[in-house]
Design goal:
Number of helices: 7
Number of strands: 5
Strand content: 15-25%
Helix content: 40-55%
Shape: elongated
Largest sheet: 3 strands, antiparallel
Radius of gyration: 22 Å
Order of helices and strands: EHHEEEHHHHHE
Number of domains: 2
Strand order of the largest sheet: 2-3-4
Length: 181
Amino acid sequence: MDRSLKLIACDRGATAILNTRNRPGVKLDGLPEVPNEILAIIRNRKPADLSAVNIPVRMGEDQYTCRAYLIESNNGFLTQPVIALHMEKISSANDAVNDIAAKYHLTERELQALRGISMGFSSKELAERMKISPNTVKVFLRLIMIKMGVTSRGEIVASMLQNRTKRDEAAILGNVSFREK
């Protein structure tokens, strides 16, 4: 954004995030709009204090944290100072569990078992919560392992983390689009 808080450039990931908030399902021509709650907080801050502020913002069903940074030119690349926004999705273990459940077509009970191990429950603790025997929990975990092609609880968790990292990287990568002046 320029100093007047007009959006001048936006990568593909930010465009997708902002479009979700502004007009779900509608692809906009040009750059999207920055939410008013972000703009209001930036307006009320001194430029030097911007990076100290985490702005929580809900975009559709997701929660994000937004930070603003004042970038001034040291080498003549920028003709005027700009404000860069960094938006990061606040993801939860639940997102990773749901991604794995969808990817491997887990049943509802397998999903419950997966949630339990993602929270660190033992088979006995999980059995009590699911109101089944520990041996039945082990059967569900074995079915999950077969579907995922892994051989241990640790590999299940590692796969969830790896899947989440790939998804986050895909959201970060993208082309930068500029508004013509």
